[in-house]
Amino acid sequence: MSGSSQFRLLGQRRFAPFFATQFLGALNDNIFRNGLVILITFQGVLVAGMDHSELANVAAGLFILPFFLFSASAGQLADKYEKSMLIRRIKILEISLMVLAAYALVSESYYLILLVLFLMGCQSTLFGPVKYAYLPQQLADSELVGGNALVESGTYVAIILGLIVGGIAVADGIADVFDISRQMILGGTLVAVAVIGYLTSRRIPITPAVDPELPFNWNAWRETWRIVSFAREERSVFLSILGISWFWFFGSAMTIQIPGYTLEILNGNEAITTSLLAAFAVGVGIGSLLCERMSGPRIELGLVPFGSIGLSVFAVDLYFAQPESHSIAVSSISEFLARDGSVRVLLDLALLGAFGGFYSVPLYALIQKRSERRHLSRIIAANNIINSILMVGAAILSIAVLSAGFSIPELFLVIAGLNVLVAIYIYSLLPEFLMRFLAWLIINVVYRIRVSGLDNIPQKGPVVVVCNHVSYMDPVILGGSVRRPMRFVMWY
User: What integer best gives the mean pLDDT of the chain?
Assistant: First the structure.
């Protein structure tokens, strides 16, 4: 139950090479996307008449679209074939795409760059079901929260490094020192990281197919409906997917606007953009790692409402931190921090990330634990499909709201309000989340109860728990202490 239990996985072959491979993949995605967004935003690049704000949302939509189109096929592949072999082949595809991206950057062919972005989305679509279905095959149920926390935090550390490396690659300093173009530096970096990722993938242990006899359905539309039906078989799993998908909507709508927010509202430059996105990523990493400490080795659904409350609170505060465009320009992080309200902006973004970690990690672990193992990759694929729909929806909503004359801070306020409505809807459908949140608060904050004897309650199968009725808090305390859903029988 200590925080050390999850970090022990980093020294084991069943987890460490996989962790490094997915970390490097996330790193490369973010080096490419951040470098591209900075080039477009701060060099005034126009593509098909679109400015930097429109291009940022279009680029996000292009990357996400393959998750909707091809996740059904990716889920079938992940269930049908051995996973370490699939991961290696996906990494070879990444190397090929990075070579194409390097050529497009050097030739300044921005239409080709957008095509590469779409193809990178295809590659990520293939990796998604393998990534989350690999964990429950290699980890015990008691390790799922810690394993998912490490993957989520590692992903966001990769995002931070990707933001930094992508920003440095397209900055003037290195290009001037080596007397080569920023595009060439960025392209070479992408290829190098992809090659290292392939080398780490070769150490991933063999992970057998869960359904090797699965007939492959080439009709993607029919298979999409089929895998969504798998996800709907267990109500809590499907509602968890909806919850995760909403978090991706929320996070996408917020982070896509950061470059424009920096330029138009904060009157800053590329370095400020990187610091804001890094603050959000650091927050997610910290929140994810804290999940195991706050919940123990089992899945604590009470953290999900806690996370959703924080998302709305700090999105609203981000609006009030800087509602209008700042008149004074800043060109460095130190100048930005010296200005009133800047620390508040960074803290709001970091806390948004932390509460996002509290929100998403238990939901991923719940899906992995309660899903039918033979269908798990396809259920993860269904999750990716619904995620993609909402993320594309986030880009469309952002474009519509901004086109209607709203400012970027006002868009943050709109998203915070939508988050409240969605949270109320989901928790009304599955009260288990809200009840566990209330129980978690009572036993951890009010009474600070230390529980013993949980090993006497089996993970599965029937069990009767009889209490001696010390107080009327018995049902809440028992329900919060025992991680399995409990049904109470009482006189009245």
Answer: 82
